[in-house]
Amino acid sequence: MLEHGGRLIAAASEFGIPLDDWLDLSTGINPSGWPIPPIPPALWTRLPEEDDGLVAAACRYYGAAHILPVAGSQAAIQTLPTLRAPGRVGVLHPSYAEHAHAWRRAGHEVVDWTPDSAVDDLDVLVLIHPNNPTGARYSTTQLSAWHARLAARGGWLVVDEAFIDAAPEASLATCCERQGLIVLRSLGKFFGLPGARVGFVIAEDNLLRTLREALGPWTVPGPSRWLAQQALADGGWQTEAQMRLRMSSERLARLLAEYSLEPSGGSALFQWVETPRAAEIYQALARRGILTRRYETPQSLRFGLPGSEAEWDRLTDGLSAFRAIAD
C-alpha cells in the first residue's frame, strides 16, 4: 500500500498527541465542505438503484453525455489499466502515485513524463490536472493536441480532475465523446465528501460499458448516491465555495511566503512548497499537532487549507515557532 495524506491516527500515535488535537492539512480536502443533510433512513435498507437520478445530476454538473459513478476515482484508477493490453504509459512525476502504481501492476511499462516529452511513443498518457502536488496546469488546447496524437494510434489520454472544480472552465469533461479521452472526477476534494467514496468516470459510452462490466454491480452505496445527487445540484453552494477556496488558497500562499516558504505551485485547495528542509519542517509542525503532506522526491511539502480563523492562527504560530528555532 502506498502512503497518502490523512493518516491522522498514525500521526497521533507517532507524536503522542490526541486525535482531536490535530490540525490536518495533509489531504487537500475542502475544510468547509458541502453541508450534509439528514439521510433518508430507507436508503440504508435497500440496494442501490442505477435509475435514481444520480447519473442525470452528474451529467448536468459536468456537462457530459455519458458518466459512470464509481466508488471514488480510486476504483477507476485501479481498473482502467486492466482494460488495455500491456503498453507504454507516461505519467507525470511527481504526481498522485496510485496512477503509476496501478498501470505498473497491470503489466504496463510506466515511464516518467514531462510536458517537454513526446507522446508519439506512448500508448497512454496519464495526467492529474491541476497536478497533485505541484499544481501544474495545461491549456485545453494543449490537452486536446496531446489527446489527438494519442487517439490517432488508438491511445488514451486519462485526465484526473480531482482538484479542478474551483476552475471548471479548465475541465475536459464536456469533450469526452471523443474516442480515447477519459476524465476522472470525485466528490472528495471540492465537496469535502471523501468518506462517501463517490467518483465519476466520463468517457465515450462503449468504454464506460466495458468498465461497468469490470467493476460489477452496486459500486456506490445508496446513501452515498443520494448525497452526491443533492451536492451536485446545489449550484449556490458551489459558486460560493469556488470563490472562498480561491481566496483561501491565495491567503495561504501569502502566509507561507512570509515565512520564506514561497510556494512552488498550488491549486485552489492546496499550496506546494519545494524545500530541502521539508522533513525538518514536517517534524516541527507535527510536534505541534499540525499535519502536512511530505514528499521525498523532490523534497517538498503540500499544505492544505485551514478552515477557521483559529486554525489559521494555529498554522501561523507553528510557522513562527519553526522560524524561531531555525534562526
List the helices and strands and how they pair.
Layout: H1 8-15, E1 23-24, H2 54-62, E2 67-70, H3 73-79, E3 88-92, H4 97-105, E4 109-113, E5 124-128, H5 140-151, E6 156-160, E7 181-186, E8 199-202, H6 205-215, H7 222-232, H8 235-258, E9 265-267, E10 270-274, H9 278-286, E11 290-291, E12 293-295, E13 300-304, H10 309-326
Describe this structure in words.
This protein is of the alpha/beta class and 327 residues long. The chain has two domains: 8-33 and 236-326, Alpha-Beta Complex (Aspartate Aminotransferase, domain 1), CATH 3.90.1150; 41-233, 3-Layer(aba) Sandwich (Aspartate Aminotransferase, domain 2), CATH 3.40.640. 36% of the residues lie in helices and 17% in strands. The protein is built from ten helices and 13 strands. It has helices spanning 8-15, 54-62, 73-79, 97-105, 140-151, 205-215, 222-232, 235-258, 278-286, 309-326, and strands at 23-24, 67-70, 88-92, 109-113, 124-128, 156-160, 181-186, 199-202, 265-267, 270-274, 290-291, 293-295, 300-304. The strands form three sheets. Strands 2-8-7-6-5-3-4 form a seven-stranded mixed beta sheet, with helices on both faces. It has a four-stranded antiparallel beta sheet with strand order 9-10-13-12. The longest helix has 24 residues, at 235-258.
